[in-house]
Specification:
The structure holds two protein chains of two kinds.
Chain A lengths: L1 H32 L6 H19 L3 H22 L8 H23 L13 E3 L4 E3 H23 L1 H11 L1 H6 L4 H23 L9 H16 L4 H21 L5 H15 L10
Antiparallel strand pairs in A: 1-2
Chain B lengths: L1 H32 L2 E6 L9 H19 L3 E3 L2 E8 L7 H14 L4 E3 L4 H12 L6 E4 L4 H4 L8 E3 L10 H11 L4 E7 L2 H17 L2 E7 L7 H10 L3 E4 L3 H13 L4 E5 L4 H5 L6 E6 L3 H7 L1 H14 L16 H14 L5 H9 L3 E2 L3 E4 L5 E3 L1 E7 L4 E6 L3
Parallel strand pairs in B: 1-3, 1-4, 4-5, 5-6, 7-8, 7-9, 10-11
Antiparallel strand pairs in B: 2-3, 11-15, 12-13, 13-14, 15-16
Helix pairs in contact in B: 2-13, 3-4, 6-7, 11-12, 13-14
Classes of the chains: A mainly alpha, B alpha/beta.
Chain lengths: ~290, ~400
C-alpha cells in the first residue's frame, strides 16, 4: 500500500504541474487584463496538435517541435488578443463570453483540419525510472522538470525584472502604474500572449504523454481555474502549488475511492478549502 | 378562312401533342428516379468512438460503388441502383437521431445500417420504434441484443456476434483464458452503457469458469490511468480486460505496460495499441472479425477486397482498422441486395428481413442470423506476443 500511495503522490505532483501551468496562465491573465480566459484549454490543444503534427507528420525532432508549437500558440494568442480580448479589458463578463466563444472556434478549426479521431504521437522517450518504491515514466519526469523550470522562471521574471515588477504594480494599482510610465496596453497584450504560450507549452508536452482529441483542453482549463482559485487568484507560485494539490488529491482519492469520480475529489477538496479560506490558500483575505 | 381554321387546329394539335409528350417525359423522369434503393448508415466516422464506424463506412461506400458500377441489380424484372446516405454521427446520439429522422421522414429510407455504439442506439431507439414495420435497422450495438424479439422491435437485426451463449465469442474467450491458466482478471471499463453491459455479461462467465474478477471504471475522456492501473497492479491480475476503443486503449496499454501490467485479454479495438507497445507487453489477445494480414494469403476474396480498397481510396490498406469492418459493412450491403433479389421486392421490409434470416452469405465472412435476428459469423483471435510475434486462431461459432 505504501508503494501505491507514494507512487500516486508522485504521479499527482507531475499531473499537478500540468494543471499548474494552465493555472499560471489563468492567474496572470486575470491579474493584468481582468478576465478569466477560458480559451486557454483550447490554446493547449493548439500546442498539442501542432507539436504532434510537427513531430509525427513533418518529422521535426520533438525538442525543436515544442518551441515551435509554443510559438504557434503564442501567435494565435496575439491574434485573439488584437481581434477580441483587446475589447474586453477589465470586463469579466464580456471576456468570459468571448473566451467561451473562442473555444468553439478553435475546436471547430481543429476538427476541420484533423477531425475528431484521436492522435497518438510516437514515444519520444520510452521507458521508466524504477526506484522500487515508485515507477515513473521517463517522459513524465521530463515534462515535470520542464514545467517546473518554466513556472520558477516566470516567478523569477515577475519578481526580479522591470517588466515583471511593472506587471505586479499594474495588478495592484493600474492608475499608479500608468503614471509611473508602464505601457499598459503592451503589458496586457504581452500577458495574454504569454499565457497562451504557457498553455501551448503544456499542450505540446501533453502530446508526448497522452492521446489527443480536440476537446482535450476542456478538463485542463477547469482544473487550471480550480487550481488558481485554490491557491488564490494572483499568486504565481500558488498556481503551481494549487495545481499540485489538485493533482495529488485526485491521484490519492482514486486509490481509496473509484477512479470514475476522480474529478469530484479535487472539487470537493476545493470547496472544503474555500469554506475556511475564501480567498484561497496563498492570498490573504481582504 | 377554312385554311386559317385548319392552321389553328393543327397548331393546337401540335401544342397538345407537345404538352402530352412533355408531361409523359416528366413522368418518365421520376419513374427512373424511383429505381434507386436508398440505404442509410448511422455510424461515427470521426470522433473518439469511431473505431468501428469508420471502417464500416469505408466498406459500405465500396460495396455501393461496386454494385452501381456493375449496372445495379435486378429485382422482379426491374433494375435498381443503390444510393448511400451516410452522414457522420461522431458518436453523438442527438446527431444520430437527427440523421435518422431525416432518413426516415424525408429520404424514406427503408434499410439503415448501424449504429455500433450502444449510447447512440439508446438515443435513437424510442424514435426508431415508432417506425416498426416500415424499415430495418441493422446495427452492431450491444444493447440491440436485449431488444431483439421484443414487441414493436421487429425492425431490429443485430450485425455482430453476441458475447454469451453457445455461439457467443465471449464464452469461447473465457474458456480459452481458463486454458491459459488465468486465475484472476481485472476489468477496466469506461463508465458508460456498454461498460456496464460488458460487466453484466462477463462477471457470470468468469464465475462459472472459476476465475476471480475485479472491476474498475473510468470516465469518458480520461487519458491518465496511472492511479487506477496502479490499483489494479496491486491486485496482481493475470490479465487486464480493458475497454474498448482505440481512443483509450493507446493510453491504457502504454501506461499499463509502464508499471508492469503486460497481459491484455479480449481487447476490443484495433491491433494498433498492441503493435505500438509490442516490445513492452507479453500478451495482447484481441478479438477481431478478421486478421487481414494472414487472410489475404489464404482467401482470394480478401485479397481482392484489399486490392479493390487500395484502388478505390487510392491509399494503403488500413490493416489495423479493417478487421472492424464486419459490423454493418461491405458484406452486409451485398447480403441485403441478395435478399432483395430473392424476396422479389425492395419495399417489403418484412419479406426482405425474412429472407435475410434464412440466408447464409459467403463473402469476406460467413454470415448468418439466428432465430432472434442476431448475426453469427466466423472470427479470429489474435495474440500479439512480446516483440510483435502474432498467433491467430480462427473460430467458427456453431
Amino acid at each position: 500500500m505504501l508503494q501505491l500511495v507514494v507512487g500516486q503522490l508522485l504521479n499527482g505532483v507531475i499531473i499537478g504541474t500540468l494543471y499548474g501551468i494552465v493555472a499560471l496562465g489563468v492567474t496572470l491573465t486575470f491579474g493584468i487584463t481582468g478576465i478569466v480566459n477560458f480559451a486557454l484549454g483550447a490554446f493547449m490543444a493548439i500546442g498539442a496538435y501542432t507539436g504532434w503534427y510537427l513531430t509525427d507528420v513533418v518529422g521535426i525532432a520533438y525538442p525543436v517541435a515544442v518551441p515551435l508549437a509554443v510559438l504557434v500558440a503564442a501567435l494565435f494568442g496575439l491574434l485573439a488578443d488584437q481581434t477580441l480580448f483587446r475589447f474586453t479589458r477589465n470586463n469579466l463578463i464580456n471576456g468570459l463570453i468571448v473566451s467561451i466563444g473562442l473555444i468553439s472556434v478553435i475546436q471547430s478549426v481543429l476538427l476541420m483540419v484533423w477531425t475528431t479521431t484521436p492522435k497518438n504521437m510516437h514515444y519520444v522517450l520510452p521507458g521508466v525510472i524504477n526506484l522500487d518504491l515508485f515507477i515513473v515514466p521517463k517522459m513524465k519526469g521530463v515534462v515535470f522538470l520542464v514545467l517546473l523550470v518554466v513556472i520558477l522562471a516566470t516567478y523569477a521574471a515577475l519578481t526580479r525584472t522591470w517588466a515583471g515588477r511593472a506587471a505586479y504594480a499594474y495588478a495592484q494599482a493600474p492608475e499608479a502604474a500608468k503614471l509611473m510610465g508602464v505601457r499598459t496596453e503592451l503589458l496586457q497584450t504581452g500577458v495574454v500572449v504569454y499565457s497562451t504560450a504557457l498553455a501551448g507549452l503544456g499542450g505540446a508536452l501533453y502530446a508526448s504523454l497522452y492521446s489527443l482529441e480536440v476537446s482535450m483542453g476542456a478538463s485542463y482549463i477547469l482544473k487550471g481555474v480550480e487550481a488558481a482559485i485554490l491557491a488564490g487568484i494572483g499568486s504565481v507560485m500558488g498556481s503551481l502549488v494549487g495545481g499540485i494539490v489538485l493533482g495529488v488529491t485526485e491521484a490519492i482519492g482514486s486509490i481509496f475511492f473509484p477512479q470514475a469520480y476522480r474529478d469530484a475529489y479535487g472539487l470537493v477538496f476545493l470547496v472544503l478549502i474555500l469554506l475556511f479560506r475564501p480567498s484561497g490558500l496563498f492570498v490573504r483575505g481582504r | 378562312m377554312r385554311n386559317a381554321f385548319y392552321r389553328a387546329t393543327r397548331l393546337r394539335s401540335v401544342t397538345l401533342v407537345a404538352a402530352i409528350a412533355l408531361v409523359a417525359g416528366l413522368n418518365v423522369l421520376p419513374a427512373r428516379a424511383q429505381n434507386v434503393v436508398k440505404i442509410g448508415e448511422i455510424e461515427a466516422q470521426t470522433g473518439a468512438l469511431n473505431t468501428y464506424g469508420w471502417m464500416s463506412a469505408q466498406g459500405m461506400r465500396m460495396a455501393v460503388d461496386e454494385i452501381n458500377k456493375a449496372g445495379g441489380f435486378e429485382v422482379a424484372g426491374k433494375k435498381y441502383k443503390l444510393q448511400l446516405i451516410n452522414p457522420d454521427t461522431q458518436g453523438n446520439p442527438q446527431q444520430a437521431l437527427i440523421h435518422l429522422k431525416q432518413m426516415l421522414e424525408q429520404d424514406h429510407v427503408k434499410y439503415v445500417f448501424g449504429p455500433f455504439l450502444t449510447n447512440v442506439y439508446k438515443g435513437i431507439e424510442p424514435y426508431a420504434t415508432g417506425f416498426d414495420g416500415k424499415f430495418l435497422l441493422m446495427g452492431g450495438a450491444t444493447a440491440i441484443h436485449f431488444d431483439l424479439g421484443k414487441p414493436h422491435h421487429g425492425y431490429l437485426m443485430r450485425t455482430w456476434n453476441w458475447d454469451a451463449g453457445p455461439s457467443g465469442f465471449g464464452s469461447l474467450m473465457v474458456a480459452n483464458l481458463k486454458k491459459r491458466g488465468a486465475k484472476r482478471v481485472a476489468m477496466l471499463m469506461q463508465n458508460d452503457a456498454f461498460g456496464h453491459v460488458a460487466r453484466d455479461i462477463y462477471a457470470p462467465l468468469f464465475k462459472t469458469a472459476g476465475i476471480a474478477f475485479d472491476e474498475e471504471w473510468f470516465e469518458p475522456g480520461t487519458t491518465d490511468f496511472s492511479s487506477v492501473l496502479a490499483k489494479i497492479a496491486a491486485w496482481k491480475p493475470d490479465y487486464v480486460f480493458p475497454g474498448y476503443t482505440d481512443a483509450v486503449l493507446y493510453d491504457i496499454v502504454r501506461q499499463a505496460t509502464e508499471i508492469g501490467l503486460t497481459k491484455f485479454w479480449l481487447v476490443r479495438g484495433s491491433l494498433g495499441p498492441g503493435l505500438k507497445n509490442k516490445d513492452a507487453l507479453d500478451d495482447y489477445i484481441i478479438y477481431i472479425p478478421k486478421y487481414f494480414e494472414e487472410a489475404q494469403n489464404s482467401e482470394p476474396k480478401v485479397k481482392k477486397f484489399i486490392a479493390d480498397y487500395k484502388a478505390f481510396y487510392k491509399t494503403d490498406f488500413p490493416y489495423d482498422q479493417a478487421p472492424l469492418c464486419s459490423s454493418s459493412c461491405y458484406d452486409h450491403v451485398y447480403m441485403l441486395v441478395d435478399a432483395m433479389k430473392k424476396a422479389g421486392t425492395v419495399d417489403d421490409v418484412a419479406k426482405v428481413k425474412q429472407t435475410l434470416m434464412s440466408t447464409i452469405y459467403h463473402g469476406l465472412w460467413n454470415i448468418r442470423y439466428d432465430q432472434t435476428g442476431e448475426e453469427v459469423f466466423n472470427f479470429d483471435v489474435v495474440d500479439i506476443k512480446k516483440g510483435g510475434k502474432i498467433e491467430v486462431t480462427h473460430i467458427n461459432p456453431k
